[in-house]
Amino acid sequence: MTITYTTIRVNPADMEAIVSSLRDAPKALRQAYSTAINRTLAGMKTDALKSDGPIRSRHPILRKQIAPYIGIRKATIRNLHGSFKFNKSHRLKLSIFDPMSDPGGVTYMIDREKGRRLLPGGFTYPKNASGKKVKWVARRVGKRKKPLAFPKGLSPWGMFNKAGVWKVMKVSAERRYPVELKRAVAFRIQVINGHIKRRMRNGIIVKGGHDQAEPTTQLND
Fold first, then answer.
1. What distance in Å separates the CA atoms of residue 125 and residue 218, rounded to the nearest whole number?
2. Taking the CB of residue 110, how many other CB atoms lie within 10 A of it?
3. At what angle do helices 12-48 and 165-192 cross, to 10 degrees?
4. In the 3-class helix/strand/coil scheme, how is 166-180 assigned residue by residue?
5. Where are the domains of the chain?
């Protein structure tokens, strides 16, 4: 733009830059939405798995023991929909629920509200797992030593469906999503306006002289 005492003239180059920015706007907006959705889902998972959260306050389990079984189906710029995904048939090993030998078998605790339960005829035995000795739980099927059955505990899907869990998740989403969307939109506006220069280096986007990974919006199978 050229401004003198009597005239204001728009330069063709400036017009072309604005037109180019407007062309990028629809895609940038969808990128902002997908990023906000994915970050919100990740935050919801974090809130749900806190030690004082709805799952671990009720079930004596470590975050690392349940987190791998709660996946996130991420939003993309083509599909602005994200959700949690579970293997509904998977059940956690009974060995992680504090098994203890008992004259009648093995006791374990899955739910703090219901206390310890008894597995009749069960027994524990040590087994190395990742360099650590853990108590595995087994039970004989018949009178002979073999074959053995390995009872399972509650599934991650079952834990999430306990009363109150999804209500807490909804509150987490309502709190996090507006913040994440505002942050993602602000970032995309800066990119469109050229305030943040981006170039690829081994798959990493370099911005302002610092390496920073671009938030992924691809489907995570």
1. 43
2. 21
3. 160
4. HHHHHHHHHHHHHHH
5. 11-90+160-212, 94-153
